[in-house]
């Protein structure tokens, strides 16, 4: 089908071509000099005309029709993050500083991603969508309502004031805290707090030690931020603890070793760290911190050393997923038993992901973003009861890495990151639907 035969208008074709590059709604709006709301209206019209239900399906439809080429749909332009940030990151294992992937490997990655998308979504597209209903077997107090296949579960919210990547995100008392990370001015200790009800941001007292490549966990009303990589490009062993009520910081016991780019989860009032970078390279270490005794403990390590991984606790296990080690990008999923201090391998993700965010919501593990080398056209969700992964659409396709995420009922908020530039995105995914029963 040629452009002249397409059911789309010239403006809609412009938008589809930008969509195929992995551009966000905000980037499309800037490029076309229109509002984000207008972009959303165009997307709804495009989905309706093409009989598709998501950005991914629209992109694949356009590729099959020859409206966009595979190279257009699966290659990203590289752009500097600003002089200060680029200087800071020059000696760190950041994707924009690694040698370009060879042509053969790039073609293989593109082909693998394209095949995965075609396999997952083509049957639905050829049958005219998903028949208007999405099955979402989340157990709990409230049943899950059907979701229209023509509506996205992602919603763009007020953007984070300071674009940054490799930051820490934590939720407390209905608010989302964005802490530290790498901004255009280099590593920062800045705290910006998002209020979902007001859809607005506020500023709080900065972290005393500016660091990037960090994570955060809320335990007992306080937010714990271990380690990170400092302005001198060195991993740190510091533990700083934020009190949201007092808007104050204090210092905890130093970590067993300096670490950044680790995975982190809270379980039963204690904090667990997995892998990361220690200054000499990637490690497989696992540590547990007890806030009550202010003590660290060394546990059974992971099978392979890696950083830029995700971790989240669900019921009686901590799920550790993905990661990167400068050679391999991982699609692995392992369940860690904190009581027995043992590991169990589980079914891998569809695609390898490093620099991802992992969040647990009731019965599911949500994996968002990532992609150190490969193109990531969708997010994924794991159901431990079925031992199976399902795909989810993504608001930022391509290589959305270094983001943070947290759950505030009923939404998962995915914030910041890197996609050829520092991002200020704040995307809300509706993970739960409440049905009022009389």
Secondary-structure class: alpha+beta
The helix count comes to: 7
In spatial order, strands of the major sheet run 1-26-25-24
Beta-strand level of the residues, as a percent range?
25-35%
Distance between the termini: 51 Å
Q: Specify Rg, calculated over alpha carbons.
A: 21 Å
Question: What do the pLDDT scores average to?
Answer: 83
**Helix percent band:** 10-25%
* Unreliable parts: 70-104, 121-150
Q: Biggest sheet, open or closed, and with what strands and sense?
A: 4 strands, antiparallel
Number of strands: 26
Silhouette? globular
Give the helix/strand layout.
Layout: H1 10-20, H2 25-32, H3 36-50, H4 55-65, H5 70-74, H6 83-89, H7 103-126, E1 154-156, E2 168-172, E3 175-179, E4 182-183, E5 186-187, E6 191-195, E7 200-204, E8 217-219, E9 222-226, E10 239-243, E11 248-251, E12 263-267, E13 270-277, E14 282-290, E15 295-298, E16 310-314, E17 317-321, E18 333-337, E19 342-346, E20 357-361, E21 364-368, E22 379-383, E23 388-392, E24 404-408, E25 411-415, E26 426-430
Antiparallel strand pairs: 1-26, 2-3, 3-6, 4-5, 6-7, 8-9, 9-10, 10-11, 12-13, 13-14, 14-15, 16-17, 17-18, 18-19, 20-21, 21-22, 22-23, 24-25, 25-26
Helix pairs in contact: 1-4, 2-3, 4-7
